[in-house]
Amino acid sequence: MTRTVHPIEQESFRILRSRLDTTGLPPLRRAVLERVIHSSADLAYADDLVCDEAELRAAHAALHAGAPVVADVEMVAAGITARRAVCRLADAATSTVNGTRPDGLTRSARAVRLAFAEVGPGAVWVIGCAPTALEELLTLDAEPALVIGLPVGFVGAAESKAHLRASGLPAVSNVSEKGGSAVAAAALNALLYTPYPLPPHPGARSTVAPADHSLNAPHPPKENTP
C-alpha cells in the first residue's frame, strides 16, 4: 500500500533509530520491532519481542494475497489501518443463556470460536487484549498464517504467550506481561505497510529476542503477581 507519512511519525522514527540501532535486522523483523516500539515508546521491546523472519515473510505474502485478519477486540481492529479486521466480540456478548455462557468460555474465547467459524484456516490472528482469546485459539485447528499474540496483563498474559511459542505456530509474541491493543495492531500494520514482494533473504531462523527466548526454546509459565 502507499502511505503518506506524517512529519510527526517521521520524527518519531528518527528519534527511535537514534536510540536503538536496528540496521542489522532483516527487513520484516526490523519493521515489526520498530513499529511496536513506535506505538509504545518502549525500547525494551528490543529484548522482549520474539519473531522469526521466515515466518514473517510467509505471513507478509499471505496478507498481500488477501488472507483475512481477525482481531480479538475492537480496539485492535480499530488500530489496524490498512485492512478490515473481523472481530466477533460483540456477537459473543449475546451468546448467553440467562446471562451465562453454557459452554463455559469467556466472552473473548467465545469470540475466537465465532471468528474461526467465519474465516476458517489461513487467517492472520491479532490478539492484543485477552489471554483467554489466545489460549482458545491454540485449542483450534486454525492453521493460521500468523498469530500476533501480544495480550497484556498480570493474569495469564505471559503464560498464554509462552504457550503460543511452545505450540510451534508462526507467531509474533513477547516474553513479559506487557503488550496491548496498540502494539498488536502496530505489529500487523508493519506487515501491511511493507511493500510486496520483498527480495529473497538468505539465512537461518533467528529471533529479535536473545537466544533463550527463541521459538525453539519455550519458556515455562511465569508466576504473575498484581
What does this structure look like?
The chain is α/β, with parallel strands linked by helices. The chain has helices at 7-19, 27-40, 45-48, 53-64, 74-79, 89-93, 107-119, 131-139, 157-167, 181-193, and strands spanning 49-50, 69-71, 124-127, 146-149, 171-174. It has a 5-stranded mixed sheet, sandwiched between helices. Helix 8 (131-139) runs parallel beside helix 9 (157-167).
Question: How do the strands and helices of this protein lay out in sequence?
Answer:
Elements (H helix, E strand, L loop, with lengths): L6 H13 L7 H14 L4 H4 E2 L2 H12 L4 E3 L2 H6 L9 H5 L13 H13 L4 E4 L3 H9 L6 E4 L7 H11 L3 E4 L6 H13 L33
Parallel strand pairs: 2-3, 3-4, 4-5
Antiparallel strand pairs: 1-5
Helix pairs in contact: 2-10, 7-8, 8-9
Task: Give a quick rundown of the structure.
The chain is an alpha/beta fold. Helix content is 44%, strand content 8%. The protein has helices at 7-19, 27-40, 45-48, 53-64, 74-79, 89-93, 107-119, 131-139, 157-167, 181-193, and strands at residues 49-50, 69-71, 124-127, 146-149, 171-174.
Keywords:
single chain; 226 residues; alpha/beta; 5-stranded mixed β-sheet; 10 helices; 8% strand
